Amino acid sequence: MEQNATVIMPENASPKPSDEIVISIKGLKKSFGSKNVLKNINLQVRRGENVVVLGRSGQGKSVTIQCIVGALTPDEGTLEVLGSEVSQMNEKELKELRTKIGFLFQSGALYDSMTVRENLEFPLTRVLKIKEQTELDERVKEVLESVGLGDAADKLPSDLSGGMRKRIGLARTLIVKPEIMLYDEPTTGLDPITSREISELVLDMQKKYKTTSIIITHDMQCARITADRVVIMEDGVYIAEGSFDELLHSENETVKDFFKDVS
């Protein structure tokens, strides 16, 4: 693929749950001062699809997802999410959009002074304005069981291992039942076994909650487990895309460099 070419789905791509495009990015550019971070980003993500973005540090992977949620405004290009152009939204519309998007940070971003239950109830009461305790209890129970931590409700984050904190962070994101999930390095700082468990959990949550996901990672095991499709970012553009196995056997030297340690 040429560096400024539009990313096109391959004709032989495996069928996805839907052909509906929920994220459409065309000609996206973003600079910070004299540094051109996004030079020409083109990507379409289908409903129910997991797209993994691979790239070295400082390539603009996280900038892209910040543009998706309207936290950053692109300099050029269009970015439609769930059928609406993000840059044209007012603050009320952006807030409504963000209730439909889950964002899992590297740290999990839990409130240390709150129990797990309180962490999970927080977005329900603040974002969805749910006040009925019975509904709060049911949602907390459901999502904790989904991530395999049904008995953790009354623990503090400090009582949890790194992998457990990741699970609770994922649970807190999923509890509002978002249509889109954005994962920023979901397995960073975890040992290989826990990393695999979290990657498999991401895949399980996609199937259970029918989410559409963009997953930014350096973890090739995570990419292999979770991706329906992989795109590779280099110098501010996407240079290649395809299934994990397709890119694993690519003859492109830059792509081969990403996969050189994959057996």
Spell the H/E element sequence: EEEHEEHEHHHEHEHEEHH
Alpha-beta classification: alpha/beta
Helix content: 25-40%
How far apart are the first and last residues' alpha carbons, in Å?
Answer: 24 Å
Q: In percent, how much strand structure appears in the residues?
A: 15-25%
Rg calculated over all Cα atoms? 18 Å
In terms of per-residue confidence, which ranges show pLDDT below 50 for 5 or more consecutive residues? 1-16
Beta strand count: 10
Short description:
With 263 residues, this protein is an alpha/beta fold. Helix content is 34%, strand content 24%.
Key phrases:
24% strand; 4-stranded antiparallel beta sheet; single chain; alpha/beta; 6-stranded mixed beta sheet; 263 residues
Topology at a glance:
Blueprint (H helix, E strand, L loop, with lengths): L20 E12 L2 E12 L3 E6 L5 H8 L7 E6 L2 E2 L5 H8 L2 E4 L11 H11 L6 H14 L15 H13 L5 E5 L7 H18 L2 E5 L3 H7 L2 E6 L2 E6 L1 H5 L4 H6 L5
Parallel strand pairs: 3-8, 3-9, 6-7, 7-8
Antiparallel strand pairs: 1-2, 1-4, 4-5, 9-10
Helix pairs in contact: 3-5, 5-6, 6-7
How would you explain this protein's 3D organization?
The chain is globular, with a radius of gyration of 18 Å. A 6-stranded mixed β-sheet has the order 6-7-8-3-9-10, sandwiched between helices. The protein has a 4-stranded antiparallel β-sheet with strand order 2-1-4-5, with helices on one face. Mean pLDDT is 88; it is low at 1-16. The protein has helices at residues 61-68, 91-98, 116-126, 133-146, 162-174, 192-209, 220-226, 244-248, 253-258, and strands at residues 21-32, 35-46, 50-55, 76-81, 84-85, 101-104, 180-184, 212-216, 229-234, 237-242. The two termini are 24 Å apart. It has 9 helices and 10 strands. The protein has a domain at 110-177. The protein has 263 residues and is of the alpha/beta class.
